[in-house]
Amino acid sequence: MQHVERAEIPLLPVRQWLAAWDDVRFDEAQHRRRPPELFYVASMKASMLRALCDVRRRSVDGEGSRQNDLNIQRRHNEARSLEIAEFVQHGFPWSALSVGDRKSGKYQDLKKPGWLPTAIVVNVLAAGDIRENGAVASEDLVEVTAHDGSHRMSVPSTSPDWVPKKTAPIEVIDGQHRLWAFDGSESDFELPVVIFHGLDISWQAYLFYVINIKPAKINTSLGFDLYPLLRTEDWLEHAGGPTIYRESRAQELTEALWSFPESPWYRRIDMLGDGGRRQVSQAAWIKTLLSTFVKKWESTRSPIGGLYGAPAGEDAAVLPWNRAQQSAFLIEAWIQFAEALSGARHEWAQSLRDAQPGESADPAFDGPTTLPNTDQGVRAFLAVVNDMVFVLSDELKLREWPPGDFFEGTSEIGIRESLRTLRALPVAAFLRDIAEALASYDWRTYGAPDLPEVTRSAKARFRGSTGYRELRQDVLSHLAQAKDSRVSETAKLVLEELGWELR
Questions:
Q1: What tens digit of pLDDT does each residue of 205-240 get?
Q2: If you average pLDDT over residues 457-472, what whole number do you get?
Q3: Helix, strand, coil % (nearest 5) of the chain?
Q4: Is 0.85 surpassed by the pTM of this model?
Q5: In the chain, where are the structural domains located?
Q6: C-beta of residue 147 within 8 angstroms of C-beta of residue 153
Q7: 3-state DSSP of 475-492
Q8: I need a surface site. Which of 84, 101, 297, 368 has the fewest CB within 10 A?
Q9: How many Cβ atoms are within 10 Å of 268's Cβ, its own excluded?
Q10: In the sheet that 190-197 helps form, which strands lie side by side, from edge to edge?
């Protein structure tokens, strides 16, 4: 049986609470229950804190199942923690030297103290707080008490080898790389620690934002990856945060579609806005992505949000896909669609090939008079795929898609690895089924050659600003009549959720 040696740590209380804060909207349903009016400052041995802590990272377990998607940290970069560990031992610039230079003996004069004066910010879980492994076992709970003006924290063990029975009683809000530099260490190195008690998860997202993103001026698109909850925080909507996030992310996704060699849009997006090109412009792609996959979501206006930025599924959590995964998903959807159109022998597709031989690789997909090669068609396709996949997010096991080892950025190797793992998920087959059903839809534009007048008249309603919705509704109605029952039933469900009639 594990020996339990509880210890008490003195705390310095800090009361940061203004009367004006009473006007803040607190909402437990949004993971923003009223926070405590006190937080604390303490000095703790790194080894002890490390044993008591856990980091809620967006990762997968040993069997490949997705962990709780309310997790708050990006994946741990071991190299960064190793560099910090070296810094602690001998300071900077010694920590930046190569192993060979350290062993050479020529740079001993560069050794300096490795102070870490910046506080680790943590949250002590309350008895009712639930995480992916459940609540903290009662005997593992960390207790914060006050007596005669003295505040103390009672911890279940002082041993660096202590292991919680279920959920660790403390979680890291900020400073995981510094703390994990002492992983397995029994050093007496002490760290300053800022301690919150029972801080709800959304407030942790807010705290992470103001500590890291707001003052640091890093790429704001990273907010999508570092903290998925920030994609839906309404307090950011009024500060322009999500607009910056979404526009930056939409641009990155467009760049990935244009630059990835296997993408049907490889070098086929007008990235510079040059006039005269028969290509959809980068600006149009960004606008389309902002209105589909990364669109702002309001449950009161639409029950279907953007797959990359809205709570999805029964647990109403945001999909924690990183940039490489998001890029790969879009590329795979377009690959399936392009292949379905290439193999289509429907009358509309054949008529374009007959009228425009040699005009393009396949006039049905990338010719001058086919909707998939227009702003309007791109938006219709992305909207329909987003809608169909969004409403089936649980059934399609979207949360079981593990991030690859190359999780940062939209590098070719990261996207390629994400494509490989995506194709093993049920959603890949669903994308293929959607693409096959879409191939029978008449994608010719209003100005296509040899278009029957009755067809041209019907397509006239797709012109103008209202045409985007008209085309989307028309495509969904077409899918609702597909032979594939899952595609058909899902399209009907989407139409019902949107309050649109089946045509």
A1: 888 878 876 554 445 455 545 545 555 555 554 444
A2: 89
A3: 45, 15, 45
A4: no
A5: 7-217, 292-498
A6: no
A7: HHHHHCCCCCHHHHHHHH
A8: 101
A9: 17
A10: 53-54, 170-174, 120-124, 190-197, 38-45, 7-15, 150-155, 143-147
C-alpha to C-alpha distance for 228 and 66, rounded to whole angstroms:
14
Average pLDDT rounded to a whole number, residues 321-328: 91
**How many CB atoms within 10 Å of residue 171?**
25
**What's the CA gap between 202 and 48, in Å, rounded?**
27
Distance CA 426, CA 423 (A): 8
Strand, coil or helix: 125 = coil
Return the closest-CA partner of residue 379 out of 501, 462, 277, 482.
462
Residues 6+ apart with CB under 8 A from 390: 304, 305, 307, 310, 312
Nearest in space to 70 (alpha carbons), one of 131, 129, 25, 122? 131
CB 161 within 8 A of CB 5: no
Check if the beta carbon of residue 171 is closer than 8 Å to that of residue 73: no
Peptide bond just before 320 cis, omega within 30 deg: no
For tokens 């992470």, what's the residue? Answer: 208
Cβ atoms of 335 and 262 closer than 8 Å: yes
| CA atoms lying within 13 Å on the CB side of residue 25 | 6
* Neighbour-count burial for 415-424, b at 16+ CB within 10 Å, e otherwise: bbbbbebbee
Residue with tokens 């994990």: 180
Contacts of 451 (CB under 8 A, 6+ apart): 444, 459
* Strand bridging mode 38-45 / 150-155: unpaired
Q: How confident is the model at residue 60 (pLDDT cuts 50, 70, 90)?
A: very low
Gap between the Cα atoms of 163 and 185, Å rounded: 15
What tokens appear for 292 in the block? Answer: 């589909």
Our measurement of the distance from residue 68's CA atom to the centroid of its chain's CA atoms, rounded to an integer in Å, reads 13
Neighbours of 302 (CB within 10 A): 14
Contact in structure between 376 and 467 (CB atoms under 8 Å): yes
